[in-house]
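note to self — DONT lose this again. spent like an hour looking for the file last time. sequence + predicted structure for the chain T wanted, 143 res
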Amino acid sequence: MSVAVAELVDPRDQTGGPARVAPEALSDGFAISSRHVAPDMVMVEIAGDLDIATVPQADTFLDQAAAGRPRHLIIDLARVEFLASSGLRFLLAGRPDEDRNYARLHLLGVTRNRIVHRALAATALLEQFEIAEDLESLLAELN
């Protein structure tokens, strides 16, 4: 059994690199990490299956990654290999509202990941998210 280790970003870390804070072992084949990509932007990268077994861990991780109240939260789904209905609910619940610590949610890795794109398209959810081709194009769009 392989175990992935999550890296949580310390919200006070402004260096841009991930700072290890309480790494936790996650489900087999699932990995999640976060890092600052700009002063007010945190990117969370998810790899493996996003399903009923991993969503609770991903949700907790997302809350911790956004604890520093970044203006933009970016979720990179490029390495997601399976997206279940619980994963879709996770993404929908992650949209900004009065309970979230960030103003805007952006998704990356959707257009090039057939599994993620098909799941969002089949459920008519593509229009519910701000989707960028890659980090560089998102940063250029926001500047």
